[in-house]
Target: peptidylprolyl isomerase
Amino acid sequence: MAPGCSVSLHLEVRFEDGFVALSTLGEEPLVCRIGDGTLTPAFEATLLGLEPGSETHIIGHGSELFSPYDESNVHWLARDDFPSPIEPRPGLVVAFETPGGYETGGVIKRVEGEQVEVDFNHPFAGHSLTIRVQVLSVT
Model:
């Protein structure tokens, strides 16, 4: 696998407690072109040189492989900012629309009365990860 190649692969991402945060195993594989921005350059670097049919396990940190954790991406929102019938609770992932019209996800960290703390960092940022990659094809 090299920059510019089209790749089809299965991906499984586990947090250090064993929780499977993402898996395409048994589902449609991820298809992308190395360098097209689908994957971060740091994550792509771990894939370079892999051949079709190979499988590898990567142990790394989400802040290095996906996105740095930024404390300024954690915000308090009013409970009223959540669309009905969503009842905010810790761990819930909620889709929000930015002022520019883009959709972004946030993970609810805690609820205190009418205020809800939401983390808008990449869900893998700040976590130790074990990533299983099965390369299906490279063209």
Summary: DSSP finds two helices and nine strands in the chain. The chain has two domains: 6-67+124-138, 71-119. The longest strand covers residues 128-138. The helical segments are 41-47, 62-65.
